[in-house]
From TrEMBL:
This is 2-dehydropantoate 2-reductase. GO terms for molecular function: 2-dehydropantoate 2-reductase activity; NADP binding. SUPFAM superfamilies: 6-phosphogluconate dehydrogenase C-terminal domain-like, NAD(P)-binding Rossmann-fold domains. It catalyses: (R)-pantoate + NADP(+) = 2-dehydropantoate + NADPH + H(+).
Amino acid sequence: MKIAIAGAGAMGCRFGVKLQSAGNQVTLIDNWAAHVAAINQQGLTVTTDDGTDHVYHLTAVAPQAVTGEFDLVILFTKAMQMDQMLQDISGILGNHPAVLTLANGIGNVETIERHVPKSQIVVGTTVWSSGMPGPGHIKVTGTGSISLQAVVPTEFADFSGLLTTLNAAGLNASQADNVMAAIWKKAGLNSVLNTYCTLFDCNIGEFGALPNWRTLNDAVLNEFEAVAQAAGVAFSAQDVTDLIAAQFSPETNGGHYPSMHQDMAHQRPTEIDFLNGYVAKLGAQLQVPAPTNAILAQEIHAQEALKGIS
Ligand code: NAD
């Protein structure tokens, strides 16, 4: 299969290596010029769990330079970079490739729909993970899985073929029963752990040890539940709270600093407008107030402004 990965950061590169190693023809598309140059000149270095480095030779291009026909485009930008990326790669979208995103946040389908017919779009969530210490270099740990669903299952051309391609690459993909519920569940977790750990400059275990973590958690998730209900999406604040509580121990994710914390520390924009900010905005449209989520989004934006992040 000819696969373009648009947004070849930590996750895009991890998926790119797995898909190319399984025999697919992969093109990485990215805006970070130094990263693209490093991949083309020295190859992509992947540091694995045991600390060893492996070099993979993939083709990388800038979005404006990509041409050709692709069977599948995987969007792995951050949520707020997706619209611009889709504009920049419009030249390869005309041949009706399937378009898949597993990016975090709510609202990615709405973004993609502005550029691609609904019948070609697949969305999902993933628990694969990856980090990027520098250009041309990713660091991967553990294994993961993907849960995904076509936006219009009756119109998507070859869903079982897509699953076969992903699973042949060892990506552990399966069909979701209710992908929007899964996306909201992950966003609920991120809107508690990412947001508070960033604001309090703490890791997940330290957040869980706060005597009032439950009050802080419930303020976010009760609004999520009310807005989700008005939007017709299944969401249980209790289920997400249970999932969050399961992350606190050192054996799970207690020592981990969520990605938003890392984005802030490295002076990169956060995905807050697709987490708490999205729920606040949708709540306002649906006349379901979400003031806690609205103010948390503003607090993150204030921290971005103080750090000069735009
Ligand atoms: P990333 O920050 O590694 O990459 C996203 C984009 O930002 C890429 O185009 C990358 O080249 C660019 N970028 C990164 N660092 C840069 C720098 N210093 N200078 C210039 N450009 C830079 O993002 P990611 O971690 O691959 O995440 C992609 C999506 O997947 C997000 O929605 C994220 O929330 C989600 N996700 C990530 C993980 C994870 O473990 N990383 C896990 C699950 C879901």
